[in-house]
Specification:
By secondary structure, the chain is an alpha/beta fold. It has seven helices and eleven strands. It folds into two domains: 183 residues, 3-Layer(aba) Sandwich (Alpha/beta knot); 67 residues, Trp Operon Repressor, Chain A. Strand 10 and strand 11 form a beta hairpin.
Length: 270
């Protein structure tokens, strides 16, 4: 087996006929949360995940990132990973047998329980990704993410491996890599010690079913716009009430869907 390349805590996994020893090059602390990403473009990772706070956490072993190159699992001399759609139509479809081999590789040494190790396909037809999903994933031991390309993946492999389909939003990307990075970012920042200040992950948009309140900093006056006086008052109870009111106002104005859900949950709790 050739030695995997490593960059900022990243391990690139390639197909091999010999067993892969995940502990040969420890990249994360024991029991640290891990992301395994199956992709045709492993060089796209870690990308922004290797920068700033998340990048430092990756280097410090607070979480781990494995990229599994799909191409070596392909068929024939040219390692083909796709074929024409059954029944005709435009584009190409990732083959079930090829994807299955990559999923088997990704499953080595990880829990079989979905709650402990979700297996996710980034798909525009999937369940919308949200903060609650990020929190759920952050409580697992890690996860495997399958980045699609072309027209998608053979349905049979998704059924066989009980892969969850998750969508970043109601739009179509050329592949799942950007969506995977966004979802990993949202999940990893919830892990213990990653942000440093635990309150940073609590007092923000969606954490209380509301959008986040406005933020201000120096200078106190800028181009005729002043920081709201309450924020300079030193009265923390008043500041908290102001911020709550602003969060509610913004949610009502910009996300009536969230506001309705928030109001319904509040009514149920009373």
């Amino acid at each position: 087996m050739t030695t995997p390349s490593k960059s900022h805590g990243q391990k690139s996994i390639r197909a091999t006929a010999q067993p892969r020893d995940l502990m040969a090059q420890p990249l994360a602390k024991p029991k640290a949360w891990q992301a395994r990403v199956i992709t045709l473009f492993p060089q796209a990772f870690p990308g922004l995940l290797g920068q700033s706070v998340l990048g430092n956490a990756l280097k410090d072993g607070l979480w781990g990132l494995d990229t599994i190159d799909l191409r070596p699992f392909g068929e024939g001399r040219h390692r083909n990973v796709d074929d024409t759609p059954a029944g005709g139509g435009a584009g190409m479809v990732l083959r079930a047998d090829v994807v299955a081999r990559a999923l088997d590789e990704a499953a080595q040494g990880v829990p079989h329980e979905c709650a402990q190790w979700p297996v996710v396909y980034l798909s525009p037809r999937g369940k919308p990704f949200d903060q609650a999903t990020a929190r759920q994933w952050s409580k697992a031991q890690g996860m495997t993410m399958l980045c699609g390309r072309f027209e998608g993946v053979d349905e049979r492999v998704l059924e066989e491996y009980q892969v969850q389909e998750v969508s970043l939003g109601d739009f179509v990307l050329t592949g799942g890599e950007l969506a995977a990075q966004a979802m990993i970012d949202a999940t990893v920042r919830l892990l213990p010690d990653v942000l440093g200040n635990a309150d940073s992950a609590i007092d923000e948009s969606f954490s209380a079913d509301l959008l986040e309140h406005p933020h201000y900093t120096k200078p106190a006056s800028w181009r005729g716009r002043d920081i709201p006086p309450v924020l300079l008052s030193g009265n923390h109870a008043e500041i908290e009430r102001w911020r709550r009111a602003q969060s509610e106002r913004l949610t009502r104005e910009r996300r009536p869907d969230l506001w309705q859900e928030h109001a319904a949950r509040k009514a149920d709790s009373t």
